[in-house]
Write a structure and sequence with these properties.
single chain; 604 residues; alpha+beta; 3-stranded antiparallel β-sheet; 18 strands; 12% strand; globular
Length: 604
């Protein structure tokens, strides 16, 4: 092993001593491949370190009984990696993570990966050690199999080990999925049932440019209705002069649909101008698009009076039997993109325009499991971090045109007027419903300098969103009324003579420290984050112990480590900086600029 390590060090030294600019192209490519091989070997060594560190974190050595659960937040014995892996002391995760410069969650996963590979996937682990399997691909496999029993994991190990580095990640994922189902059919059924219950609305992180992502997993009918409303709003915006691409208008519609009264007024006024939206009582009057030419490989769509269904070669149901219900049902058109409009007279006498497989449905990121059905079939997904994202298969329409500043201001003014109309008395007397309650208020805290406030130019930080250009504040506020609260002077130290933390102090601490103060912590400060007394509260101590200078926001795991883990110490360096020391003497400073490892005096 020592000889192998020396050879690796020699290779690395030679690799970084060479001037890449003078290498022939073939040698340059070889150097790139060698760098990646060395990186994989380094990743494998990190996994080995994780395994040995876990062995040295035996819970028995810390007085933790197997399976013991605590009620006071103390340390527990935990199993990482799945069934068949040994237990380790829970708080050992914290020091491993911070020394590696990662969050506790990432450190926990690295330990779990190392243990799972050694105890549950020994064949894949042997290939990693031999340099025949890339560690990150292997880690993806063991994570996807974390719920499998030990014997089932061994089956996947046997089936998958030969292919870790010989086929694309997308194909490998399919093989792993099939092996999991064969290994444990009961678990596969359980996971399928759990997936059916995973409905919800989830907000992702921003992209740093003022954009955010929302994932909706709901009943198919509810999603279609929401999509139809968004499409109607996008069409209405086009009626009022919005010439941006349809997906931009659909994104704009998300902000409008949050206000039902505004939405209804917008659609009502758009209809008054002759807009044909899915809320009209008649199908679109424009000439129907021509169907794509049919070939032998693409049979002609079967759409005829009295037919039970109309199908394509993809088996998509296009229209229902005309004889269903007592009213009329007529097929309008089916275009080459694969959708149909059907006008159905329901039992209530109102016509409902149903849209099936709307080509305007957005395509999400191809690695996005929530929207994978929207993407093209049989696409090799870019799971490899060295691969890029697949191009959008639906290019922008030629009719879309960018809008200049004047046009955008005019559109914003029109939308603001429509919103005002929505909540004002009805001047027409046609009996529109009024007196609606405005949607709930949203509080957005924006941090900016006095120079940016005065000039309107610069960068601001919106909590929960991230950095924005100052000009994007108008987009953030929207078209409705807003209230500006007075600025809180965070330089004032505020305290109370009680252990409980009042709201005014909690708000100040959250504004002073926007992110938790555990080394490499990732949780943003919020109304629900733990606030820890840096110097423990003493019932018989001095007054003012609960103050903005003695409170630190911490995630629950970091809070438990500080309170219960042996060997950890924390103290304040100044009003902005905390110093953390781990059980093995590693020191970290956490301040507004992040986490900094402090070298030992005279050493590293």
């Amino acid at each position: 092993m020592d000889l192998a390590n020396r050879r690796m060090r020699d290779r690395i030294e030679r690799m970084f001593e060479n001037d890449l600019g003078v290498l022939p192209t073939r040698d340059l490519l070889e150097a790139a491949a060698e760098c990646r091989a060395v990186a994989s070997r380094a990743d494998a060594r990190v996994l080995e370190c994780a395994q040995i560190y876990a062995d040295r974190s035996d819970p028995a050595g810390r007085g933790l009984r197997p399976g013991r659960r605590t009620r006071d937040g103390g340390e527990r014995a935990v199993v990482l990696g799945g069934e068949g892996c040994p237990e380790i002391a829970e708080f050992a995760i914290a020091e491993f993570a911070v020394v590696l410069g990662v969050s506790p969650g990432v450190g926990r996963q690295i330990l779990a990966d190392g243990l799972a590979l050694r105890h549950r996937f020994p064949r894949i682990w042997a290939r990693i050690q031999a340099g025949d399997a890339t560690p990150w691909k292997a880690c993806q496999i063991v994570r996807s199999c974390a719920k499998l029993a030990h014997t089932a994991a061994a089956y996947v190990d046997r089936r998958v080990a030969p292919f870790v580095d010989t086929i694309s990640p997308y194909r490998l994922d399919k093989i792993v999925a099939a092996a999991k189902k064969l290994a444990d059919a009961e678990l596969a059924d359980t996971e399928a049932a759990e997936a059916a219950d995973e409905r919800g609305v989830f907000v992702g992180r921003g992209d740093g440019h003022g954009n955010n992502t929302i994932y909706i997993k709901a009943a198919a009918a509810a999603v279609k209705r929401c999509d139809a409303t968004i499409a109607a709003i996008a069409d209405a915006l086009q009626t009022f002069g919005d010439t941006r691409p349809v997906q931009h208008r659909r994104a704009e519609a998300v902000g409008i649909i949050a206000d039902p009264v505004f939405t209804q007024e917008l659609l009502t006024q758009a209809r008054a101008q002759g807009a044909a939206t899915p809320y009209d009582n008649a199908p679109p009057q424009a000439a129907p698009p021509q169907a794509a030419p049919q070939t032998e490989a693409d049979p002609t769509t079967d759409v005829r009076a009295g037919a039970d269904v109309a199908t394509t070669s993809e088996g998509t149901i296009r229209a229902a039997d005309e004889r269903v219900r007592s009213g009329s049902e007529k097929f309008v058109t089916a275009d080459g993109a694969g959708f149909a409009w059907v006008d159905v007279a329901g039992a209530d006498g109102e016509d409902d325009l149903l849209e099936l497989s709307d080509p305007r449905e957005p395509v999400g990121p191809m690695e996005d499991p929530w929207l994978e059905a929207s993407g093209p079939r049989d696409l090799d997904l870019p799971v490899d971090p060295y691969d890029g994202r697949a191009p959008d298969p639906r290019p922008r329409t030629a009719e879309a045109q960018p809008m200049d500043a004047a046009a955008l201001r005019a559109l914003d003014a029109r939308l603001a007027q429509i919103k005002q109309d929505a909540y004002s008395a009805d001047p027409t007397g046609v009996g529109r419903i009024r007196g609606h309650v405005r949607p709930g208020r949203t509080e957005v805290i924006v941090h900016l300098t006095d120079k940016t406030l005065a000039s309107g130019v610069g960068v601001v930080r919106a909590e929960g969103i991230g950095p924005l250009l100052a000009r994007q504040l108008a987009e953030l506020v929207g078209h409705g009324p807003y209230t500006v609260k007075p600025v809180i002077d965070l330089n004032d130290a505020v305290s109370v003579n009680a252990y409980e933390i009042p709201t005014r102090i909690r708000e100040r601490v959250r504004l002073i420290h926007p992110v938790e103060l555990f080394p490499y912590g990732t949780r943003e400060s919020s109304d629900t984050i733990d606030l820890d007394h840096i110097e423990p509260y003493d019932l018989h101590g001095p007054t003012g112990q609960t103050s903005t200078t003695n409170l630190a926001p911490l995630g629950r795991f970091g809070h438990r480590v500080k309170t219960h883990a042996r060997g950890w110490s924390v103290h304040r360096i100044d009003h902005k900086t905390l110093e953390w020391t781990t059980p093995h003497g590693f020191t970290f400073h956490v301040d507004p600029d992040g986490t900094h490892r402090i070298p030992r005096p005279g050493g590293t």
